[in-house]
Amino acid sequence: MLIVCEGEKTEPEYLKEVRRARQLQAANVQIMPSAFGTDPLNVVRYAKQLFEEGDSHRKIEPRAFDEIFAVFDRDEHQNYVVALQLAASISNTLRNDLRQLVRFVAIASVPCFEIWLLLHFEDIRHPISRSEALQRLRQYLPGYEKGAGSHYSATSDRLEVAIGRTLALNALHNAQQGVELHCDMPQLLAAMV
Prior knowledge:
Elements: E1 2-5, H1 10-21, E2 30-33, H2 40-53, E3 67-73, H3 80-90, E4 94-95, E5 101-110, H4 114-118, H5 130-140, H6 151-155, H7 159-172, E6 182-183, H8 185-191
Parallel strand pairs: 1-2, 1-3, 3-5
Antiparallel strand pairs: 4-5, 5-6
Helix pairs in contact: 2-3
């Protein structure tokens, strides 16, 4: 599994914590930030390129994965919808080194990754801003800072609650343009088994 994240620290650190907690081998679940920047379209493009070409410095072999995930926020990115469309169009068109079709999935958070963490503590059904999500999250995780670690361990005891809330939320909203609240993180966590 290859996971490429928009963020340089917050999302990769969270997912690396998940990987450690589930005792998954790093060789089987590669997690890294996008080298092309934070725009969702660039995250998708980098994930595709990394899959196709590999990276000898990071010991990533070309076409060595069965699944690719591009993790990004909605924020105010102009290319958000285009990134979702590109990821969908790539899925099951690439072949790995075993000649098997590879699933390519966009994992979007609207407005931001912190909505996922906040859903561990609150049932959210109405759109909130990125700054409001951060402010409310800090009520439950005092001192929360982007890029710091231990977010998974601080919330894992409420994981099933968060998944249930997220599924209910996503039933009301989808990831397409105009939607102001959505989170695909449970889909990624389910794949990380």
